Request: fold
Amino acid sequence: MGQRLRKLVSSLVVFGVVAAAAGWFLTKPEPWPASHWEGLGEADIANGALVFSAGGCVSCHAVPGAEGDAKLVLAGGLPLKSPFGTFHVPNISPDETAGIGGWTLAEFGDAMTRGVGKQGEHLYPSFPYGSYARLTAKDVNDLFGYIKTLPKSANVAPSHDLPFPFNIRLSLGGWKLLFFTDKPRVTVDTSDPKIARGQYLVEGPGHCGECHTPRNALGGFESGMWLAGAPNPEGEGRIPNITPGSKSIGAWSAGEIASYLETGFTPEFDSVGGSMVEVQKNMAKLPAADREAIAAYLKAIPAL
Amino acid sequence: MKLKTALFAIAFTGLAMGAVTAADEPQMVRQEMMKKVGGAMGALAGIAKGEKPYDAAVVTASLTTMSETAKAFPDQFPAGSETGMDTEASPKIWENMEDFKAKALKLGADADAVLAAMPADQAAVGAALGTIGPNCGGCHEVYRLKK
Reply:
């Protein structure tokens, strides 16, 4: 190898190492400082159950096809198809080895709100932590307490089926750098406590935007399109626009939106369908004031 | 002469067909059927919520509409009607026709059972909706796609 070439290669290598280090530094997993999860006290199990319903954990973590109480066994296994490959939802039952029974509150909380796994690795955003990031530490503590009361399962879900480079968890750091935020998605009048509560529920635990907001080629939300409707990730059909500009729910009153979330029937007595059925069943378990808060927020966001 | 009549007949039936096609297509027929089911559901819900007074005739008519419509509904999905006319029918219907039919017949059977017991007041109508209602979302969850 010639002198100059050798120099070039070595400077490229140095450059590469520096760039990788900088990249790692910029995009390394960022859990909360331990103090964030301290001093929260006994979990309020009843509130934990409500956060669990609002968060719709069952939709992904229950055994596919489970009905009734069997849905509370969070054994995982559901294949989630995406443009990046197929994810297999993990077991989050309180089993000590197969599930999250051995996790600390901080480990659980950092997974939920920072997308950081037990080994300090980045988690895939197919787990909607980009929304759950808004959960208060109290709600996370209560949720964790509630999940610990559920049945254990020893099921081990298959590993994800993702092509290169999506199978490299490190590459998720870049995704997080670009798209991860716990800031409000839209500006609404949060001096109204009802709208503020609605914003928390919709943008946080309810993760409504994960289905109702369109995404760009990298899987981040398109800006300025909050809840404007999106193609159905499962293939055909569309997930409707739920802003005040929607051609269907734009004409519904806040009371009619709340009633849809409670009963599953539109003002024309059409019935809820598709993946919204599971969401609606969860919304029906919330207190009426929470459904009214969601409706008030959906009326307050920009019309698209 | 004969030829003329024949041509006229063809032209005439052609015209007539043109006039009725849209409304006769299975996609349109089944959407109308579902609108009727929705209307019946709305009438019952009005009573259950106390927005309308209890009326035995309305209850009977609504349940009968539901039962009859549900039973005829699966016949409106012949091959070739998978798309068009803003249909929101999911392709899964044609993949699992037996299950789809069973779900429609279950709605019919539930409506018949409620009718046989005849809900006699507002509370009973509410309870009946608890039996009938889940059939709607249960089928729409799998077989109906918003577009």
In short: Chain B has one domain: 2-143. Chain B is about 75% helix and 0% strand.
